[in-house]
Design brief:
The chain is of the alpha+beta class and about 210 residues long. The chain has seven helices and six strands. Helix 3 runs antiparallel to helix 4 and helix 4 runs antiparallel to helix 5.
Length: about 210
């Protein structure tokens, strides 16, 4: 084989390898974009879960939190979805800043956010800081938009089974306890459990039965 043929073959191999490398980079960028929420830039559920699992496996003092924006629906209803998007984008930016280099934030959908921290030191103080951060008003077209957040967290070290799924379940329960206390402070009636609803209805049903007899 002549030198020219060798050169041509080598160039063909390099071109093929370069083409595959370019294709791989494009594919990786597409996959990476699909795992990021386009509105907030946060990881979506799948992308966040992958990273959170790694932190949970390696960091026994990790903590997981869930946050749900309170008052978000009125923003959408009164000011429109564009205003709601601005609030969500601001919440995502603030959560990312709060996590810093020691955590990973994600958006589960709607106005629900999630995060994992690699160390639960000073967690209560940090959650108070996050609550205050998410409560800060957002300006949109001359209108001041304000929401708050119900935040629940779980320390891995406090769980019988230190897994991500168990931490998420515990954080979810904690979040709804916070949401219930917030509603109670506002003077709104908390929903009755099914059993309590039945007990409350018994006297009335008994009176009806007595009258019928």
């Amino acid at each position: 084989m002549t030198n020219s043929a060798h050169t041509f073959q080598a160039l063909a191999v390099l071109a093929l390898a370069g083409g595959w490398a370019l294709h791989a980079r494009r594919l990786y960028r597409c996959l990476d974009r699909s795992r990021h929420d386009p509105l907030t830039g946060l990881w979506t559920r799948d992308g966040w879960t992958r990273r959170a699992e790694r932190i949970v496996r390696r960091r026994p003092r990790a903590a997981v939190l869930l946050a749900d924006l309170d008052g978000f629906k009125p923003v959408n209803d009164v000011h429109g979805h564009a205003a709601g998007d601005v609030v969500l984008a601001a919440a995502g930016e603030r959560l990312t800043s709060w996590c810093g280099a020691h955590g990973v934030a994600g958006r589960l959908g709607g106005d629900e956010f999630v995060a994992v921290l690699d160390d639960d030191s000073c967690l209560d103080d940090r959650l108070a800081d996050l609550s205050e951060l998410l409560r800060q008003p957002v300006e949109h077209q001359g209108v001041t938009l304000t929401v708050s957040a119900s935040i629940g967290a779980a320390r891995l070290a406090a769980l019988p089974q230190p897994t991500l799924s168990d931490a998420l379940a515990a954080a979810d329960q904690a979040m709804y306890r916070v949401k219930g206390r917030t509603r109670g402070r506002r003077g709104r009636r908390l929903p009755l459990t099914p059993a309590l609803s039945v007990l409350r209805g018994l006297p009335q049903r008994m009176r009806h039965a007595s009258a019928a007899s």
